[in-house]
Design goal:
The complex is a heterodimer. In chain A, 43% of the residues lie in helices and 12% in strands. Chain A is built from 19 helices and 9 strands. In chain A, a hairpin with an 8-residue loop joins β7 and β8. The model of chain A has no long low-confidence stretch (mean pLDDT 94). Chain B is α+β, with helices and mostly antiparallel strands. Among the domains of chain B are: 84 residues, Ubiquitin-like (UB roll); 235 residues, Rossmann fold (3-Layer(aba) Sandwich), CATH 3.40.50.740. Chains A and B meet through α14 and α15 of A and α2 of B.
Chain lengths: 432, 529
């Protein structure tokens, strides 16, 4: 895989790489021109054939998702670009919006064309002010150059793009929470069915795609689905932006093919762990994924299947590295606190359970834990989001996957670093 | 029609029905909090989770729809869906949800008004754990007023959001919302718009726990001490179906009773708190006769005799005044008794309100104008001039019980009368001008039928015992008639009056208590939607 050449981030180090002029000079919008002459169904088919899977976290097939849009609906269709990137340890969409906004916009227009949408939204995280300003300029440039608006590039296709800034809630990155928020309501995820592809924004068919997913689209159109499929494992192929943070020498975004060994990412790409310390644990896909021990991390490939086999997930590909000095109980409390703070409060298990976890973990950290607490922590995480094994009834206990997102990491901390938790429990109580 | 199997029961269901609805209709209990049939489904309480064959996750039954599946995919070759509500997985999940709900709940059932009709209590009893594993401190918040008559006890709230959805979808006023997020979430009212709409009282009814409380009922009684009497609200011509909760001779609260042909699940606050009006009135409970400027009590026999004598001596020159506040039977009896002209008191009108959900409060704040006009119509064009023309000197009035100021017209009518008989339950201005006062029943003591403004006859049932020497209004008229004419037809109970009424008034031919039942009967044939 040494021959891999970055696709999405190929030009990010060049001057003015965010401008339309630059993007056109490197072949920008050629794909769009091609698409506008195609039948929309063939565009969807091409994306389906590429096996592109969503880069936001769930990893659902993008082409299949587009195919859910009802053909016979008289309602308007909407495409929403999910730029709410709020998963801890994830910062790839920000980079793409900063450096290659036209690449993303081209992907959006192609996607919108494929599903028959004429109004599209970019739901951008409120904190991304700089990126918001860049996108404003990008969209203005596009309108000036007939890339957006009426009769795009001489075709009879029209599309408007509206930027909407979020107000800083993690849950508004969940697609139905995002849609509610976009409608001006409280960001409470909706119960499914109906799925957004049938009834989404304003009860109309809606597709929500991640920034990185959309950025892949022009390349699939330009170079074909077979080229895309040839990168990495066939079931979930393509280039992927890995965000590496935590205890590494060179944290940052690395574009690599799917399926790269996690070990290579940490030790070759990110320069290893500072001061020669030992690896202790890694979040492979943002803080919602189950944590991997060093042994597991050395042995895992960064693709959907291999990580699910290790009872974790690729998620948003936010790799958070922890070395031997990290206190896993404190880290676990930190994660639990984040999720308790971000829980929308709609579903009973998540609203009550996340706060209970924080109270218990705080008590343990303060030295008031009991040996029973360990089993109880496992039991509570099970009751909020279920076990990680996908057996019947062991997941899907809440409206949205937030329940799993808090349960799985906390559960994996407690299971894999049980000894550290027990160390916090006062000794006399251990032997009592 | 899809075939659904819930536990061991096979049920044919309408395509698109939910599992929860179907289970309820078929007597299978699936516990739930956030689901309410009048409100949009949100599926957030997670209490109604069931196991559906072929689905990896437990499903919320309130949002699981049964539809026809392809013959090849039917379970056991014939079922479109197979649901289990009693498996270990479901039973355990209910325990888990209840454990979460009770973590921060104060468990103050001994002083909670909801105790006895609380779903948290009932489901904990049926499905919950006996012990708590929670060792941490509970979240404690103080009570708040959401509106002038609704208080929220945040500690008891389980955030099912029924009340919030009620104000959004039923009253359309949107005063309530959920404030903050996650563990800090709480139901709140807009500062500039407190929960003071005329449907506000319903939020306390639909609250499945003791969080929302009507200040009118807080710490007044225990629900198990109260007698529950199904009846009909008499505060406007919509005729909302209600339950009256009383102990001995005191009403403690009213709550709406489900009737989709009338009021759905709700009632308005005018009716809800209307019963207090009758608590402080000057009740008339004894027959009285005028002596100069004041009244003295007399025996019933004498009162009836004097009334009969006065009516008889006036012969045909007697006029009767019907009342839209009285039952069909009472008005009908008045029509039988009075040969002369029939008139009405002036109508009391108020604002007509229709909510986005279709819930109505009628501008006619009397319960039975339709029925009154059906069973004892006004038989002259202009009551006032007819009184003059026919030189009428005796009048028999069914009093509304509404304390109104009389206009000039009525003042002049009364001044022309030699003898005024008022059948009433309270000392109104009208009663003050009577020669004889015959004590009838107050609204919550009455029994009979009333007809709402959409032509639906409903059974008004008594919820309070008869006060003092008062008699049923139809019975008073019966006694007078019998005394006037020994050969008069005698009715010994209310159903006989109804039978006679059915015979005389063709539109009412199908009316009987049996047919009215709890939901009433539409005179228009088909029930209006």
């Amino acid at each position: 895989m040494n021959t891999f050449k970055p696709v999405l981030t190929e030009h990010i180090n060049q001057k003015d790489c965010h401008t339309l002029q630059f993007y056109k000079s490197v072949g920008g919008y050629i794909g769009l021109e091609k698409v506008l002459k195609m039948n929309p169904e063939n565009v969807t088919q091409e994306v389906k054939d590429s096996n592109l899977r969503g880069r936001g976290g769930a990893g659902f097939s993008t082409g299949v998702k587009w195919g859910f849009i009802p053909k016979d609906s008289s309602k308007p269709k909407y495409l929403i670009n999910n730029a709410d990137e709020s998963e801890p340890g994830t910062f790839k969409d920000r980079l793409l919006m900063n450096k290659a906004p036209h690449q993303m916009l081209e992907g959006m227009i192609i996607a919108a064309y494929a599903i028959g949408c004429h109004t599209s939204f970019i739901y951008i995280r409120g904190e991304f002010y700089k990126e918001y300003k860049i996108l404003e300029k990008t969209i203005a440039e596009a309108y000036e150059n007939n890339i957006l608006g009426q009769n795009i590039l001489g075709s009879n296709y029209n599309l408007d793009v509206v930027i909407h800034r979020g107000a800083g809630a993690y849950i508004c990155g969940e697609e139905t929470g995002l849609i509610e928020s976009l409608e001006g309501k409280r960001g409470w995820p909706r119960i499914k069915p109906p799925f957004p592809a049938i009834e989404g924004y304003l009860q109309s068919p809606t597709i929500v795609n991640n920034v990185e997913t959309l950025s892949c689209i022009p390349h699939i159109i330009n170079r074909g689905s077979n080229w895309f499929k040839s990168i990495g494992p066939e079931k979930g192929p393509g280039p992927r932006l890995f965000c590496i943070s935590g205890c590494v020498n060179n944290p940052g975004v690395y574009e690599e093919p799917m399926g790269i060994p996690l070990k290579d990412l940490i030790y070759e790409k990110a320069g290893g762990i500072p001061d020669g310390k030992q690896l202790k644990a890694v979040f492979p896909g943002g803080s919602s994924s189950a944590i991997l021990t060093a042994d597991e991390a050395f042995d895992v490939k960064m693709d959907y299947e291999d990580l699910v086999e290790k009872k974790s997930m690729l998620g948003s590909a936010g790799v958070i590295v922890m070395d031997e000095t990290v206190d896993m109980v404190q880290a676990c409390l930190n994660i639990a606190r984040f999720y308790a703070h971000e829980s929308c409060g709609q579903c009973t298990p998540c609203r009550e359970g996340t706060a209970w976890l924080v109270k218990m973990l705080t008590r343990i950290v303060n030295g008031n834990g009991t040996p029973n607490d360990i089993d109880m922590l496992l039991d509570i995480t099970d009751n909020i989001g279920g076990l990680i094994d996908f057996s019947q009834g062991s997941f899907g206990k809440t409206i949205c996957p937030f329940g799993e997102a808090v349960s799985w990491p906390v559960r994996s901390f407690v299971e894999k670093f049980k000894d550290e938790f027990l160390e916090y429990v006062p000794k006399e109580k251990v032997f009592a | 029609m899809p075939l659904l199997k819930i536990d061991d029961k096979e049920i044919q269901v309408k395509s698109g029905a939910t599992v929860l609805e179907t289970a309820e209709e078929n007597g299978i209990e699936i516990p739930h909090y956030c689901y309410h049939p009048a409100l949009e489904t949100v599926g957030s309480c997670r209490m109604c989770l069931v196991q559906v064959e072929g689905m990896p996750k437990l499903q919320v039954s309130c949002n699981t729809f049964v539809g026809d599946v392809h013959p090849d995919r039917k379970v056991d070759g014939k079922y479109d869906m197979v649901v289990h509500t009693q498996t270990d997985l479901v039973v355990q999940e209910r325990k888990n949800i209840l454990e979460f709900l009770l973590l921060n709940h104060p468990l103050d059932c001994p002083v909670c008004d909801q105790a006895g009709e609380c779903y948290l209590q009932d489901y904990s009893f049926k499905f919950g754990n006996a012990h708590s594993r929670f060792m941490e401190n509970k979240r404690v918040r103080s009570n708040e007023y959401l509106g002038s008559q609704i208080v929220i006890n945040h500690n008891r709230c389980i955030l099912c959001s029924r009340c919030v959805r009620f104000t959004q979808e039923i009253s359309g006023t949107s005063e309530l919302y959920v404030e903050a997020r996650g563990y800090n979430s709480k139901v709140a009212a807009l500062e500039e718009k407190p929960l003071d709409n005329l449907l506000a009282g319903n939020v306390a009814d639909i609250c499945p726990v003791g969080a929302l409380l009507s200040t009118d009922y807080i710490h007044k009684n225990r629900i198990w001490n109260l007698k529950k009497q199904p009846s009909v609200c008499q505060d406007c011509s919509v005729g909302c179906n209600i339950d009256v909760f009383s102990q001995k001779n005191q009403i403690f609260r009213l709550s709406p009773r489900e009737n989709h042909d009338v009021n759905g699940y709700f009632m308005c606050d005018i009716g809800r708190y209307g019963f207090h009006r009758f608590e402080e009135i000057e009740r008339v409970t004894k027959p009285m006769i005028r002596k100069g400027d004041s009244f003295v009590s007399i025996e019933w026999e004498k009162a009836i005799l004097d009334t009969a004598k006065a009516l008889k001596s006036a012969k045909a020159e007697v006029s009767g005044v019907t009342s839209p506040f009285h039952t069909n039977e009472t008005n009908f009896m008045l029509g039988l008794m009075v040969d002369g002209i029939i008139g009405n008191l002036s109508q009391i009108n108020d604002e007509e309100i229709t909510y986005p959900s279709g819930f109505r409060i009628s501008n006619d704040r009397s319960p039975n104008r339709n029925g009154m006009n059906d069973v004892c119509p006004v038989n002259v064009e202009d009551f006032i001039s007819e009184i003059d023309k026919q030189n009428i000197r005796t009048i028999y009035i069914l009093d509304d019980g509404v304390d109104r100021d009389f206009d000039e017209v009525w003042k002049s009518i009364l001044s022309k009368m030699d003898f005024v008989i008022v059948q009433t339950y309270r000392m109104t201005m009208l009663a003050q001008s009577a020669n004889i006062i015959l004590p009838g029943l107050a609204p919550f003591e009455r029994e009979g039928t009333i007809t709402n403004d959409r032509g639906r006859v409903q059974w008004l049932r008594p919820s309070l015992p008869i006060n003092g020497e008062s008699r049923a209004d139809w019975e008073i008229l019966m006694m007078v008639m019998k005394t006037m004419d020994k050969k008069a037809q005698v009715f010994t109970d209310l159903s006989q009056v109804i039978m006679e009424m059915c015979e005389k008034i063709p539109a009412y031919k199908d009316v009987s208590f049996f047919k009215l039942g709890e939901k009433g009967l539409s005179l228009n044939g088909a029930t209006p939607e």
